[in-house]
Amino acid sequence: MERLRRLRGIDDKHHLTLMCSDLSELGSFARVDNRQYRWIKGGTPGPYVFILEATKEVPRRLSHPSRKTIGVRVPDHAIPLALLAEAGEPLLTATLQLPGDEEPMNDPSEIRSRLEKLVDLVICGGPAPAQPTTVIDLTSGEPELVRAGRGDIARFGL
């Protein structure tokens, strides 16, 4: 977690994301009511991160320090799904946008050339989409757009 925050140049108030293999894992890490579940189910798997209240299973250092919230995501791409299957547990993730960069990094060759001494592994699966995930906060009872990205926000009434 500290290594990820250092690499990204972010503090503990920036939400990190727990990437899960499917919806069944979410309940262990985030409190989800029926209405939130319907919104999440409609956007997963897919390009969405949902901000939810963290459960006690989430170590305090991983959740937002004042709000006790966590981002959760279920991807729809074969590589992260294979990594999740191999790990057998959620993975901590964040958009790869380095300090000073205007856009997230998405080209594996560029990532390797800039970060190969700072990360353990770069998996080349071709370029990722240039646009990051859409981030939606579900903690207030109604969806609130935190960051517009690849995911369609109309399905959440935004």
Uncertain stretches? none
The N- and C-terminal alpha carbons lie at a distance of: 31 Å
Number of discrete domains? 2
What is the name of the CATH architecture of the largest domain? Answer: Alpha-Beta Complex
Q: Would you tell me which CATH topology of the largest domain applies?
A: DHBP synthase
Helical content (DSSP H or I, runs of 4+): 25-40%
| Rg calc | 15 Å
Largest sheet: 7 strands, mixed
Oligomer: single chain
What's the count of strands? 7
State the CATH class of the largest domain: Alpha Beta
Could you describe the 3D structure shown?
With 158 residues, the chain is an alpha/beta fold. The chain has two domains: 2-95 and 132-148, DHBP synthase (Alpha-Beta Complex); 97-129, no CATH class. The protein is 27% helix and 18% strand. The protein has five helices and seven strands. The protein has helices spanning 2-8, 23-29, 34-43, 78-87, 108-115, and strands spanning 17-19, 30-31, 48-54, 69-73, 91-93, 134-137, 144-147. Strands 1, 2, 3, 4, 5, 6 and 7 form a seven-stranded mixed beta sheet that branches.
